[in-house]
Design goal:
- The structure holds two protein chains of two kinds.
- Chain A is α/β, with parallel strands linked by helices.
- Chain A has 13 helices and nine strands.
- In chain A, the strands form three sheets. In chain A, strands 2-5-8-1-9 form a five-stranded parallel β-sheet. A two-stranded antiparallel sheet of chain A has the order 3-4.
- In chain A, helix 2 crosses helix 11.
- Chain A starts with a helix and ends in a 9-residue tail after the last helix.
- In chain B, helix 1 packs antiparallel against helix 6, helix 6 packs across helix 7 and helix 21 packs antiparallel against helix 22.
- In chain B, helix 11 links the parallel strand 13 and strand 14.
- The termini of chain B are far apart.
- The radius of gyration of chain B is 36 Å and the shape is elongated.
- Chain B contains 22 helices and 19 strands.
- The chains are: A alpha/beta, B alpha+beta.
Chain lengths: 311, 681
Amino acid sequence: MSSQLIQKIVQSVGSVLLGKDRQIKLCVACLIAKGHLLLEDLPGMGKTTLSHALAEALGMSYQRIQFTSDMLPSDILGVSVFNVNTTEFEFRQGPIFSQLVLADEINRATPKAQSALLEAMEERQVTLDGNSYTLPSPFFVIATQNPSDQMGTFSLPESQMDRFLMRIHLGYPDPLIERELITGVDRRRVIKEMKPAINAEQLYELQEQAVKVHLSDAVIDYIQRLVAFSRQPSLNQVGLSPRGTLALVAASKAYALVEGRAHVVPEDVQAVLAPVAEHRMQGSQDITGHAGRSVVQQMLSDVDVIDRLLL
Amino acid sequence: MKINAVYPIPRASLLLLLVTVGLAIAPHILRLPLWLPVVAAACVGWRVQVYRERWVFPSRIVRFSMVLVSMVAIFLYYGTVLGPDAGVALLILAYLFKLLEMYKERDAFLIVILSYFIIATNYLFSTSLLSSLYTMIVVLFVTASLVGLNQTMREVKPRRTLLIAAKLFMQAIPIMIVLFVFVPRVSPKWALNIDNSHAKTGLSDSVSPGDISNLSKSPALAFTVEFFGDKPSQKDLYWRGVTYVDFDGRTWRRDSLDEYSTAKKIIKSELVVQPDEFKYRVIMEPNYRHWLFALPYSILNERNVKQTQSLVLTRKEPIASLVSYDVVSHPHYAYQGAGLSAEARARNTQLPSTDIRAKRKAKEMFEAVNGDYHAYADSVLRWFNRDNFVYTLKPPLLRVNVIDGFLFSTQQGFCAHYAGAYVFMMRAVGIPARMVGGYQGGEYHEAGHLMVKQYHAHAWTEVWFQGRGWVRVDPTAAVAPERVLSGPDGAVTDDSFSSDSPLSPLLFRNSAFIRNLRAKMEYVDFLWSRWVVGYNNSTQTEFLSRWMNDVTPQKIVMVMFAFLGGVMLVLAAYILLERGRRKLDPVDRVYLRFGEKLASKGSERYSGEGVWSYCDRVSLVFPGSAEDIRDITQLYDDIRYGGMAMENIGNSQGVGGTLSKRQKKLKILFKQKVRRLRLKP
């Protein structure tokens, strides 16, 4: 039942973004695990298309915010306006008051605007002029960003990168897929014709199920060995934090559900390891924020799923 | 401000502690006043209620009065608060009351230490194999509660705590054995004065045959004899212990010259000893008396043991614990000395003024044989044999004129009656005679040991003939010769021998199986007494000299530490290996074997490769075995990842039964599949 629903989402999104099934599954898993998603790639790789397709498929109300360098927090959160008739200040909700927020090119904005969004992401509420406004539930942020070495970007600090459960790269498409892209219909039109694959209750149900996915001792051992490996001082790298560990567990469970399993196998952990761990493991000298990638590769190949260490 | 916070003892530990209290007290119960188990139950119940937060701990005044009342109660019951019995009872009460005073962690530890102490007090009363084994079990529980006290509140399963304690216990056993074998035995400088009420069986200082209407025969072990070389025949097994010389018309009393302090040592030159000999070792159960048992004439080299002029072995200290001694006995010996001293003759012919009829009868018989001493002695025996004398363990009581009453009216009695009457008859005509107490016979065990039981206790006489010295005469043999040849139960024709107790071992002595089983148990008990309880300085030296040609204290200490070091090393190695081994789950180990099988065909699993990725990859290499590989991987997935806890686990493999059964079956199935896997390309 749940696997059919997920299958429906993946197929629906896959009809828009061709040949990226693995990334789509990761995105769905991220949302089922109640995590925010960061899509990072070069311009024109389909980040925005993917985010729009996801929003449509999940059937949620969504707002898009295009981040620019002259952006102010009020552009995201909303603003209090003086109403002449009532002679009172009135709060006008910003685009963040939506179940799904598409934050495009998040690293084009200044840190001030970035942090406004990221604080809302963490607390799931907005505080302005001493009043707190609760954000709708479910609340997701799908942010896209260009690689930090591009012109006119402000890289997100580690603490803010941490707010995203996953960071996903799309990569160039397969030549055959690209050919289909060339010959096929306009993707934007496909998005417009998309119908929601699930509703809010079903999404809620999926999220509940993901929490209940069985995580055996053997897999916990494996995750702990991975985490311990990342924390080795010899790697010259910030290791995974406990929050990172929890993120890895939540993502693994959700991915297992996406794969139609009621229990986590090490392959699930391996599948989500790169998106979950890479952006959390950047060093101080790591300007591009991609040093984590090599560590993750090492983790995948050096930490065996069966512990053979005799200590 | 005084903080009255109660230390919350972990649940598992409290449970173990309360069980321990019960177990530690249990062996003492029969020795304790009847009300004490009630107090124990009350204290335990109170503590449980405190744990459940239903009740509170007793106040200071209540506690104080409890102590006072119990002291008085103990005094009223035992008449003293000192001594082992009253002391143990008092200790147990204090121990129980401590349960109601367990505020701090320290109090709980105190109870644990007290438990160890109370267990040790059990050895004051019994050193048998069974009680030692029981003690071990209690020690295990005490240790478990000690472990439990050091665990967190989260540990709620007493079984796991017990397992840890059992492990500690097992590790301690080799060290215990080494220490037992090597630590030098120092005889204590003090001895606990266990009161004589324990000497309920066996011989005593005096015998009053007329006062006994029902001689209870206990099957308890008196002593065990291990012969080295030849064994004497059954009819020669007269184990001498006591001589009774003084007779007041009612009671025979032990020869005061046999006391260790007053004893005169035997003059060896007065004896002519033939060279034939029996060598043996006697392992004697404690009887709280001073005498040792041996066949005459015996040579014994022990400190603090004297051989008196009546050839009795007397020891300085009473035998309060298991004692073993080596004896060489020369069965053929004779006196060549000048004869009895006037004083000895007077003592051995002394008679009370009662029993006129017996004295008259003696004179008549003596005259009938014309004053021949030997002929007279024989004629009295013949009289016992001919007339209607009956051997019984339930003789009628004799109020006055015991000898007359026995000889002329009742004519029923056991060995002491016959021996007493015979001595009387001898003395009546001036022949020196005395009664001898000891054991006659014994039961040979399969392993060759002779077990002498309390029901082998016997009394016979020794008569002085000029030129021959003291000659053994057993008048009981004249009445019931079977008593001497086949043991006490052969001699009794009525059912007086069978004990009234429903649990009496004598009841089942006709069942071969039970007899055999009992003999085996007795033998085990004997070995335990011989090698463990009786392991003293001399046996230690004897034991160690089998490996060391020269046993010196330095050598013993060196060897002991070498052994201890060895034990520690073995344990350390075991712990190291165990830790390493435990890292690898048994299912993982089987899976790795599966990986090795594939690797030998060139398809090794990469480091970090998940089992399903590996399955997919090798299935392509070995399409013929793809199904098996898939099954194995599925089983591994089910067992290790799939949550063995899931309700429908194993259904797809056709495995049924309860959850835990299915889990076990799956593991076996997995092992089988890996073992049977033959790779087909």
